[in-house]
Amino acid sequence: MICRLLFLCRRLKGIQHIPYLKNDGFTSILYLVLLCVTEKEFTMEVEFSVQMTTSKLYDFNLQHSYKKPVSIMATALGVVFIFLFANYLKWYYLAGGILLIVYLPISLLRSSFMKVKMIDFFREPVTYLLNDEGITVKAQGEEQTIPWENCTKACNTRQSYFVYTGKNSAFIFPKKDMGDKTGDVLMMINTHMDPKSVKIKFGGL
Question: Are the C-beta atoms of residues 168 and 182 closer than 8 Å to each other?
Fold first, then answer.
């Protein structure tokens, strides 16, 4: 709720810099009042590093793939085949159902494993810097900044948060790597992205 109020406050007052307010609700309210009344500007940066693993990449690929209609339909068809097997006891219903249900998760796991092992970008920790300019990626001696305007969607699983920059590409921010900076990252996302594009379920915290 505070995140949404802060976003609205910034838009209404023209404030360009809003700090993260810690998990102290009373402090959050005081800061919100200060921002709205004084229009004082604040700056903030959040920096952390991510070491990619098969588990983290698989978590992203899994949630991303199962949002596609074809994946949903394949899984649903697999469940139908299982029910058909239960009624008619035909082995080909069972085989088809198992194949449709387990093929995608297994193929995604294999793909995630291969990418982590073979792609140089994933072999070393990647540093992310979030500020008012956007999200800066520092890896292999180079850095690139993606403006917030280019971030199209934010969502999450129980393990990580994802900020999409394209239809099939996203930054992966695992909670394990962010640690006590997780709240800071969420505040940066909520105060710099359009609320309609933020699909984060806070129940997964």
Answer: no
